[in-house]
Design goal:
This protein has about 500 residues and is an alpha/beta fold. It has helices spanning about 25-35, 75-95, 100-115, 130-140, 160-165, 170-185, 195-205, 220-230, 260-270, 285-295, 310-315, 330-340, 370-380, 385-400, 405-425, 465-475, 485-490; strands at about 10-15, 40-45, 55-60, 65-75, 125-130, 150, 190-195, 215, 245-250, 275-280, 300-305, 320-325, 345, 365.
């Protein structure tokens, strides 16, 4: 008897703007494609790139060959104006030590939560979030019976736009970011991480229980990549006869370690002159790196190719691919290099050692160690048998491990496990303790929400009688409150001002 597969209506959500450039956008759409290939309907809820509107796009099948697109959007301004006014007054009176940067993040999340509640989430079988902000937000406003899966794409503190604001780890900003990471990871039925390294970070530095997380590596659109691999690069890039090509496909950003590669090339240039290095990608460090190459006397050995849409085609003319990352989770460049059957040399940072078995499917070197990188380059340039061994094994491993089809099937298995667990629920060990009544709270919670103003636990001054506020009030769970009590506990544990 053929197994009957239940199709689901799934909501993908992220706080961040979509579409956008970057791995988050690519990962969301690739996983969405795989789930839809299995017959599931996947809607997308996200900020518009201008961050002023929140939208939901639904694509429903109409027949064998057609789909119907529909969408809704919420303008944030009207909601945020009230949230800002009320929270600013509350924070000034009761939490004056809280830095405006934290207050802004609080206001943004509550605005997102209230906007999301207007989309009537009760029609979904599964919610799958892609960042800690949307995870906490959806967990607080969704109907209780709908399971939520969180795909963790990386640590907040490793995002430069966040890290630049934190300062030191004694600050309240840091404690707030830790709380965002922690509550994001536990405000769901299951957190998915692409590498054990990330699971260990969440456990050791953020207190997230290991059992809350499941390791599921990312995938790559194998058919599309293999097709691109067949083409010639355009614009044309020439490879001279008997010239060894080293490629580094990574944006020119500090975390990608290009200076380590340049220093290794300087060491290599003292021994031989039969190589060229292509830096594939652009970014904020381009001018600095060009100057660094000139200072080191290897400007003629390094070619800045800038942003390319034909990266797989460049692999055809590449002998070895280098990733000198200072920290990385699961770089797609390694997946691509392995599927293309190329020698890959990478640092042992982050989740990279889980992708490469040293001496078998690639070579690793200690992070930031340019001497060891130069040694690894010399090894593969001098040993054709080693090159063939690495190329053959990398391809065999990559074709087996990285297809997006495999990724999609693993995620669907998690959905099935979570749904089965909800049918026979075990005691929830992640319930939060009673937090008491922080400063400024004037109301006790009731089991039924009687007005829009009742979502605030302190007394509000705004008049919330419009239909939109009534709609939000009806859609919100009875336990919903502004502020979020768990975060308020973090903010009231200290009276120290951040600098």
């Amino acid at each position: 008897m053929q197994k009957v597969v239940r199709t689901m209506r799934i909501l993908f959500s992220t706080y961040w703007g979509i579409p956008q450039a970057g791995k988050l956008n690519t990962s969301i759409h690739l996983l969405k494609k795989e789930l839809e290939r299995h017959g599931h309907q996947v809607d997308l809820l996200a900020h518009h790139p201008d961050m002023q509107q929140i939208y939901l796009v639904s694509r429903q099948p109409k027949g064998a060959f057609t789909k119907v697109m529909s969408g809704q959007s919420v303008d944030k301004a009207k909601i945020k104006q009230v949230i800002y006014s009320e929270l600013y007054r509350y924070y000034q009176k009761y939490l004056p030590h809280v830095h405006p940067w934290i207050r802004w993040r609080e206001i943004e999340r509550y605005t997102f939560e209230l906007a999301v509640s207007l989309f009537h989430l009760d029609g979904y079988d599964m919610i799958h979030t892609h960042d800690v902000i949307s995870t906490r937000a959806l967990w607080r406003v969704k109907p209780r019976h709908i399971p939520l899966i969180f795909q963790n794409h990386g640590l907040l503190a490793n995002d430069r736009t966040i890290a630049d604001h934190i300062g030191n780890k004694e600050s309240l900003k840091w404690k707030y970011v830790v709380a965002e990471e922690y509550y994001g990871a536990i405000s769901c039925n299951q957190t998915l991480v692409p590498a054990k390294w990330l699971l260990d970070q969440l456990n050791h530095h953020y207190g997230v229980p290991n059992e809350q997380c499941k390791i599921i590596p990312y995938g790559l659109d194998l058919d599309q990549f293999l097709e691109w691999l067949q083409y010639e690069p355009y614009p044309v890039v020439q490879k001279k006869p008997d010239q060894y090509v080293i490629s580094c496909p990574a944006s020119l950003a500090p975390r990608n370690g290009h200076k380590i590669l340049i220093e290794a090339l300087c060491v290599l240039a003292q021994k031989r002159n039969d190589f060229i290095c292509w830096l594939i990608g652009d970014g904020e460090m381009r001018h600095e790196l060009e100057e660094h190459c000139a200072k080191q006397g290897i400007a003629d050995r390094v070619v800045f190719l800038g942003h390319r849409a034909d990266v797989p085609s460049l692999y055809n003319k590449t002998d070895v691919i280098v990733l000198p990352s200072l920290e990385d989770l699961q770089p797609s460049a390694i997946m691509e290099a392995q599927i293309a059957g190329k020698v890959i040399i990478a640092s042992d940072s982050g989740g990279i050692p889980e992708m490469i078995k040293h001496g078998d499917t690639g070579l690793l070197f200690p992070v930031s160690d340019s001497e060891q990188l130069a040694e690894r380059l010399s090894e593969v340039m001098n040993d054709s048998d080693l090159r063939q061994h690495l190329e053959r094994n990398a391809k065999e491993w990559g074709v087996h491990q990285w297809p997006s089809k495999v990724w999609g099937e693993r995620v669907i298995n998690v959905y099935d496990q979570v749904l089965k667990a909800l049918q026979s629920p075990a005691p929830n060990t992640l319930q939060q303790p009673h937090l008491g009544i922080p400063h400024g709270f004037t109301k006790k919670r009731s089991l039924r929400r009687d007005s829009a103003a009742s979502m605030f636990i302190f007394r509000v001054q705004s008049q919330l009688h419009e239909k939109e506020w009534d709609d939000m009030s009806r859609n919100l769970p009875a336990h919903y409150s502004i502020p979020d009590l768990s975060f308020l506990k973090v903010l009231t544990e200290t009276n120290h001002f951040d600098s």
